[in-house]
Amino acid sequence: MATGFFVTGTDTGIGKTTVSCALLHAFSTNGYTAAGMKPVVSGRKDGLWQDVENLQAASTVSMPRKLINPYAFVESIAPHIAAQQTNIRIDLEVIRQACEKLQTAAEITIVEGVGGFMVPLSLSGLSGDRYDTRDLACVLGLPVILVVGMRLGCLNHALLTARAVESAGLKLAGWVANRIDPDMLQPEANLQTLVEWLDCPLLGILPYQAQPDVQQLAQYLDLSRLR
Ligand SMILES: Nc1ncnc2c1ncn2[C@@H]1O[C@H](COP(=O)(O)OP(=O)(O)OP(=O)(O)O)[C@@H](O)[C@H]1O
Ligand SMILES: C[C@H](N)[C@H](N)CCCCCC(=O)O
Ligand SMILES: [Mg+2]
Predict the structure, then answer these.
(1) Measured between alpha carbons, how far is residue 212 from residues 17, 56, 184, 217, 220 in Å?
(2) pTM for the full model?
(3) CA 222 to centroid of ligand 2, rounded, Å
(4) 217, 203, 7: which is closest to 99 by C-alpha?
(5) What is the pLDDT of residue 11?
(6) Family assignment (predicted)?
(7) 101 labelled catalytic
(8) CA nearest to 93, candidates 166, 39, 35, 38
(9) Residue 14 assigned ligand-binding role
């Protein structure tokens, strides 16, 4: 099995952190040491970057903040715009080295992306200067786990993302159905569609929980299905 996974999703706010934390718990329940990483975060609330806090809390090893989260921006905006505003260049090599250190400290590293799979990270979008979260996943060279936030529109987003992962030359290790919308119509038919159309294993179906409990949600994940 791989020693790390890059967790991407169908959008921002669809459960990447929730699933990443559940994965960390699932791995630690299975006897692995596990470290969470959020290379780039934007959006500080009440003095905290909640994604980083949650991943840190779900990890079994204690690592320096700078390694867990090399880049943190205050405003809740696209990271390359936040980077531009603060004159900070997101350096993929810095992230790669931090990830490598986490990987030597823990048996499994779970890296949460930012937003969806093709979020700009470079300061400039002019051709030649461009890189995004897909390039980050490639630099880390980790197999990808796709979190699908189950709501109307997710079929298109999930299939586009799977195609982008594959055309980047990365392995899709599995996908997770996260029931974020309790009122979604035809959830089973949508789920079945993705089972048929996504060419990677379904690792679990996480139920809707008004107050998500990542330790409980971990029980819905079957790590033995990871490809
Ligand atoms: N299974 C679930 N049931 C109910 N609510 C959920 C579930 N999974 C996630 N949520 C809620 O949805 C919101 C977004 O989840 P989360 O922060 O994990 O998304 P994300 O994809 O990591 O977002 P971001 O793009 O900001 O990193 C949170 O309020 C979270 O508690
Ligand atoms: C602020 C939010 N929660 C994330 N941290 C950043 C999401 C970036 C999305 C960029 C985009 O695709 O438009
Ligand atoms: Mg998150």
Answers:
(1) 11, 17, 18, 8, 13
(2) 0.98
(3) 28
(4) 7
(5) 98
(6) Belongs to the dethiobiotin synthetase family.
(7) no
(8) 39
(9) yes
* Atom of ligand 1 at shortest range from CA of 115: 25
Spatial CA neighbour of 58 closest among 99, 98, 16, 94: 16
Question: In the structure, which protein residues have their CB atom closer than 6 angstroms to any atom of ligand 1?
Answer: 9, 12-18, 51, 115, 178-180, 206, 208-209, 212
Residue 9: CATH number of its domain: 3.40.50.300
- 125 Cβ contact list (under 8 Å, min separation 6): none
The reply, when asked if residue 15 is annotated as ligand binding, is yes
Please give the residue range of the domain that contains residue 195.
Answer: 4-225
pLDDT digits (tens, 9 = 90+) for 82-98: 999 999 999 999 999 99
Q: Is 115 left (phi over 0), alpha (psi -120 to 50) or beta?
A: left
As for how many domains the chain has, the answer is 1
Ligand 2 pocket, CB under 6 A: 12, 42-43, 76, 78, 114-116, 119
**Cα gap 203→194, rounded to integer Å:** 12
Q: Ligand 2: which of 51, 74, 114 to mutate, judged by most atoms within 8 Å of the beta carbon?
A: 114
